[in-house]
Specification:
Blueprint (H helix, E strand, L loop, with lengths): L26 E3 L5 H4 L3 E3 L7 H16 L3 H6 L4 H15 L3 E9 L2 H8 L37 E10 L6 E12 L5 E4 L13 E8 L6 E2 L13 H14 L9 E8 L7 E7 L7 E2 L4 H12 L6 E7 L4 E8 L6 H4 L9 H10 L33 H7 L2 H11 L4 H8 L25 H7 L10 H13 L22 H17 L13 E8 L8 E8 L3 E6 L9 H12 L3
Parallel strand pairs: 8-11
Antiparallel strand pairs: 1-2, 3-4, 4-5, 5-6, 7-9, 9-10, 12-13, 12-16, 14-15, 15-16
């Protein structure tokens, strides 16, 4: 659709020719000599419109000269020869027609001009072609409704254009328009405006022949099948295609055809393709990393939440490719990518990583008291103390007090921030192909309360399933692979990978949680070659905690959150498990 605001409105059958400045804005001298050299009286535009005969003659003479390639003569027949010369020369050099036929078609109606330019058509006055009513000039601004000084009137004339091009029998036909005004020497002149060249052309735009490509092909999943899924809305897919084109290498020029297009002079605005000279090669299907089978399972998992809000993401750890994502409600915010919530105990994967690297081992005794040393920290979800627990046992039962106390004792302020970024890539400004909000692990500084809360995924830490699924995927593969939705998109690199020793211990802790810890019931029957972590997070003003769950099995990692879903195994866990089961043995 054309941008109508750039084209001046024609009211009735009169043409406003002044862009501001009142009468006498156009002052021309007949012939090629200047005022001073020849002493000739300046030609100016007058308020009186030309007669129908003068308008027809002015249009015909201009079009004849332009079609014959006598651009100097054509420009001299306008009220702005300098601007006309520049524009007509640019059309010849940049559009490069091998032949041009321009045929006058007589007086034109404002409705025809409005239809050709894409501007709203004002109600035409029931007057003849030589109407003398002055009209406000909309050309003075980018807005057709803006007021501007009144100027002299002209007669709107139409013409038919046919352009031919070398190497093809295809011809470009279009309807053109020009306004004819009366000059002070009683001769007609074409009022110069970009729309004289083509009704879509506006000030600050360029018309030229350029390489053109076929529109994007159908969107298909990673297996080449038509993409499915309620959360994959048309607007979201359009955004994905647009972002992917910006992030991927330039299109292959061998696939291009050629066409006449209009672009902004600075090259920043969208292209308006007017005519295709040579057809481009058909576009290949636009393949995304989504797997339809897993997408359907993810969609069902969100539908099964019974009206609760939530989201889920599945990632292929070996590549970082997003295999599925779904939201509840499906037509709402893509909370799987842009939502930000406290992740609760799923953050203990990062805390455990930092503790392991600080020298605490899975079999190190880390007591799990009823209350932690930090009075503001959240207590455990169970009433008993376990003074002889090891770190691995604390991880398995998700003991808050143990992680808070050991975190304050063993970790420097900011350790979680650096571990999250340097190992798990959280905070590296991911470009997934869709709008996404990076996880946030701010440095607590000297605030011990904040440091304590962060160790259990509360405080100012914020995540979404995309980030948490990526953390689980990093554990599974041993190396951060930034999530992407289109293969071969650029992926951020983490500063370092986990050492084999730390990685082995971390995997063992997540495997134990899947088999015998808080995730045992959820992961029953699917715990082989798997690891998991539950989480629940308190939210201000909400009585029921948000449910979180993350797991990996084989070459599949997932995370889900359910707002107000309770414990991790209550709502988010079953959602994740259902997708793992649908995946089979990946």
């Amino acid at each position: 659709m054309r941008r109508g605001a750039k084209i001046g409105i024609i009211t009735g059958v009169s043409l406003a020719v002044l862009a501001g400045g009142g009468y006498g804005a156009y002052s021309l001298v007949g012939g090629s000599d200047s005022d001073g050299a020849a002493g000739k009286k300046a030609r100016t535009v007058v308020a009186e419109p030309p007669s129908a005969e003068q308008a027809a003659a002015g249009a015909k003479d201009f079009l004849t000269a332009w079609a014959a390639g006598d651009l100097a003569k054509a420009a001299a027949l306008t009220d702005d020869p300098a601007a006309a010369t520049t524009a007509l020369t640019a059309f010849k050099d940049q559009v490069k027609p091998s032949g041009l036929t321009l045929t006058p078609s007589g007086p034109a109606t404002p409705a025809a001009f409005a239809s050709a330019t894409g501007t709203p058509s004002p109600a035409a006055k029931p007057t003849g072609a030589a109407s003398t009513a002055a009209t406000p000039s909309a050309a003075a601004t980018d807005s057709p409704s803006a007021s501007a000084p009144a100027g002299p009137t002209g007669v709107l004339m139409g013409y038919k254009a046919r352009a031919e091009f070398e190497g093809t029998s295809r011809v470009w036909d279009y309807n053109g328009f020009l306004g004819v005004v009366k000059m002070s020497d009683d001769t007609p002149a074409v009022h110069w405006a970009p729309t004289v060249i083509h009704p879509h052309l506006a000030a600050g735009e360029v018309i030229s022949t350029q390489p053109v490509f076929a529109p994007p092909g159908n969107v298909v999943d990673r297996n080449g099948k038509a993409l499915q899924g309620a959360s994959l809305t048309p607007s979201l897919l359009a955004t994905l295609q647009d972002n992917a084109r910006k992030l991927q290498p330039a299109q292959d020029q061998s696939d291009a055809g050629s066409g006449v297009v209009i672009t902004a002079a600075d090259g920043k605005s969208a292209t308006d393709r007017l005519f295709t000279i040579v057809e481009p090669k058909p576009a290949k299907p636009f393949k995304v990393t989504i797997d339809n089978t897993l997408q359907a399972a993810a969609e069902k998992a969100m539908t099964d939440l019974g009206g609760k809000q939530g989201s889920i993401v599945a990632i292929e750890p070996s590549t970082g490719q997003v295999l599925a994502f779904a939201n509840a409600p499906a037509n709402g915010q893509n909370r799987a990518f842009v939502g930000l919530l406290a992740p609760g105990s799923t953050m203990k994967i990062v805390t455990a990583t930092a503790l392991l690297e600080a020298g605490v081992n899975p079999d190190t005794v880390v007591p799990c008291p009823v209350k932690s040393s930090n009075p503001k920290a959240i207590p455990n979800s169970f009433p008993d103390a376990y003074p002889n627990n090891t770190l691995q046992q604390d991880f398995m039962i998700s003991c808050n007090t143990a992680f808070i106390d050991q975190g304050l004792a063993s970790l420097k302020p900011g350790s979680l921030t650096s571990t999250a970024k340097d190992v798990f890539g959280v905070g590296l400004e991911w470009k997934t192909g869709l709008p996404n909000t990076d996880g946030r692990v701010p440095d607590p500084g000297t605030n011990k309360d904040e440091q304590a809360m962060q160790s259990i995924g509360q405080g100012k830490i914020q995540m979404n399933p995309l980030a948490i699924a990526s953390i689980a995927a990093t554990v599974q593969s041993g190396e951060f692979k930034q999530p992407i939705l289109v293969a071969d998109l650029p992926q951020q690199k983490a500063a370092r990978a986990l050492s084999p020793d730390t990685l082995g211990k971390l995997k063992a802790m997540m495997a134990a949680t899947a088999k015998d810890g808080t995730a045992k019931a959820v992961m029953a029957g699917i715990s082989d070659n798997a690891g998991a972590k539950t989480g629940s997070a308190e939210a201000t003003g909400v009585e029921t905690t948000n449910s979180w769950f993350t797991a990996y099995r084989g070459n599949l990692a997932l995370a889900a959150e359910v707002q107000g879903g309770g414990h991790g195994a209550d709502a988010a866990g079953p959602a994740v498990a259902s997708v793992i089961k649908a995946a089979g043995n990946r």
